[in-house]
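FAQ

Q: What does a record look like?
A: Structure on top, sequence underneath. For example:
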């Protein structure tokens, strides 16, 4: 919606600019034509010998130019163009540089949680010295335990960037049982990349030796993948020009690093996605809606942050949905602590307030809106998502 408004405003400015340009060129041509005619009359006096008073010619030229009104017309066109440009500039400032402080609510934050989130973010970025300094200044000594987690994974990922798989292999070996329980094939992917790297940089014999040592124990679970790797032995040193060229695609290293980070965070009880990044990204996506709401509420002399629930939906992408949301099929309202979802004996789910209305204030049984079965309020059970 905002982009459409900006585009419409821009098109109006362009239209005014084109009109101003064409009219200005037309007026300049008229003025030039009148001046050329006046000069021609004065020159004809010298050539033909007919006496023509130059002052009379200039007086007539002045009168014609006043009729054309070049100066006034140009000034008016320029004024209209400047007005459109000024409006467009104000619109851009309003749309692109809004006062986001209007969306700020006077909410009580827990400084301890905020500090933990910021310190965790800095550790995730590998800025360990800065995080240690923040811990000292914020007096959050317990947050230092995060350093051990992220320091280890950063060392593994740093080694991966230089094609050194040893730290990653050591970590996988140490957590082999947990990886099997979770159904992860991270161990295979690591050894697969190492095998391909050996096949590219060293001899076929070295690759075979590595396969016998590390890939053979995995054959019972990943036979097809290992058979494919054995076929690639025929193209040692030239895999990039073979039917197995996909094996040397750098994307495999990037995916491995991402999967390692995900698995590591799961094992250490950390979220894979940085909470601070998620909060900032979600806030930026919902900000336009909140700005509009703040402006509307300000006009009504009301404060939106004093409400228990926003009067308008804030649409966020699926990447920001971390839990189930129930919307009552009868009232079309989202479930809340005051109006929780309730399971009927027939298996259908309605919000508590809808059930109260159907049962006339919990005084009698009612028929489910979606099937013929009757139910009472006492038979309904609250659901927890």
């Amino acid at each position: 919606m905002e982009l459409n408004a900006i585009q419409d405003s821009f098109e109006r400015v362009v239209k005014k600019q084109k009109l101003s340009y064409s009219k200005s060129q037309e007026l300049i041509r008229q003025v030039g034509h009148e001046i050329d005619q006046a000069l021609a009359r004065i020159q004809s006096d010298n050539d033909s010998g007919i006496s023509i008073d130059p002052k009379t010619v200039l007086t007539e030229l002045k009168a014609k130019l006043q009729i054309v009104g070049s100066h006034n017309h140009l000034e008016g066109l320029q004024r209209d163009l400047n007005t459109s440009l000024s409006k467009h500039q104000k619109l851009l400032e309003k749309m692109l540089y809004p006062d986001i402080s209007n969306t700020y609510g006077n909410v009580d934050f827990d400084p301890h949680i905020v500090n933990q989130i910021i310190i965790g973010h800095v550790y995730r970025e590998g800025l360990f010295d800065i995080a240690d300094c923040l811990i000292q200044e914020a007096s959050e000594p317990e947050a230092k335990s995060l350093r051990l987690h992220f320091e280890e994974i950063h060392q593994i990922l740093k080694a991966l960037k230089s094609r050194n798989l040893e730290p990653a292999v050591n970590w996988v070996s140490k957590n082999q049982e947990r990886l099997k329980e979770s159904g992860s094939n991270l161990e295979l992917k690591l050894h697969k990349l190492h095998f391909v790297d050996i096949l590219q940089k060293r001899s076929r014999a070295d690759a075979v030796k590595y396969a016998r040592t590390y890939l053979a124990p995995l054959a019972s679970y990943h036979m097809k993948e290992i058979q494919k790797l054995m076929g690639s032995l025929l193209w040692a040193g030239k895999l990039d020009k073979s039917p197995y060229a996909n094996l040397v695609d750098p994307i495999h290293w990037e995916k491995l690093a991402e999967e390692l980070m995900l698995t590591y965070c799961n094992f250490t009880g950390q979220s894979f996605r940085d909470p601070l990044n998620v909060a900032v990204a979600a806030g930026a996506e919902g900000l336009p809606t909140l700005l509009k709401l703040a402006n509307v509420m300000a006009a009504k002399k009301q404060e939106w942050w004093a409400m228990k629930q926003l009067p308008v939906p804030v649409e966020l992408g699926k990447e920001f949905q971390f839990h189930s949301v129930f919307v009552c099929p009868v009232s079309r309202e989202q479930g809340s602590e005051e109006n929780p979802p309730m399971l009927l004996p027939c298996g259908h789910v309605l919000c508590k307030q809808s059930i109260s209305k159907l049962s006339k204030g919990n005084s009698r049984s009612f028929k489910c809106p979606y099937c013929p079965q009757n139910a009472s309020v006492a038979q309904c059970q609250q659901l927890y998502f």
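Q: Is there anything notable about this one?
A: Residues 2-93 form one domain.
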